[in-house]
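Course assignment 3, question 2. Fill in each field.
Student: A.L.
Task: Predict the tertiary structure for the chain below.
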Amino acid sequence: MRPIGLPSLTQNFMDISSAKAALRSQALSRRGLINGIESRAFAQRLANIGAGIVAEKKAGIVSVFWSIGTEPSTFQLLENLARQGVQTALPVMQGRAAPLVFRLWKEGEPLAEVKWGIKEPLPSAREVEPDLLFVPLAAYDRKGNRLGYGAGYYDRTLAKLRAKKSITAVGVAYGIQELQEIPTDSYDEKLDYLLTDHEWIICK
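Answer field:
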């Protein structure tokens, strides 16, 4: 499939927020067309290439999102990172207007299920600041612009982390989620790289 265009942006009655909502819906509908074979193949690709990226970047602590719905599966990636001895963390929501925090987690440790079926480490798990983050998304463009799910969690989180230290943000998506261009606001944070089921895209 070709990247989704932006005809809506030429219409005066459409603001950025409504344009984003329309594009998000299109991209997620496309992601819903992914079949089991494609999904399993990408999970393996993400596990192998993702672990290699972490080793190349020498990231000490890595954040991996807990996959839900039709998101690319990150569970094999978590297993590969554990075998490499990498410390892994999962994001934890602190409220709609707050950045995410990250708590260390490895397979076998307890988790709490929160809204949307997402699982998070317990409050007793140690809070950390990751060096590299694998970031979920609804859509992307090749400039590194990311369209999330509308709550702004990762934009606030990446801004907070980048104000403190150098980090690497890797978006994870299927190629069919690509847009020609994503409308942006001043608070939107760009990705450094994108890993898709067919490509490794450098956004810088």
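Instructor remarks: Residues 36-57 form the longest helix (22 residues). The chain has a mean pLDDT of 92.
Grade: pending
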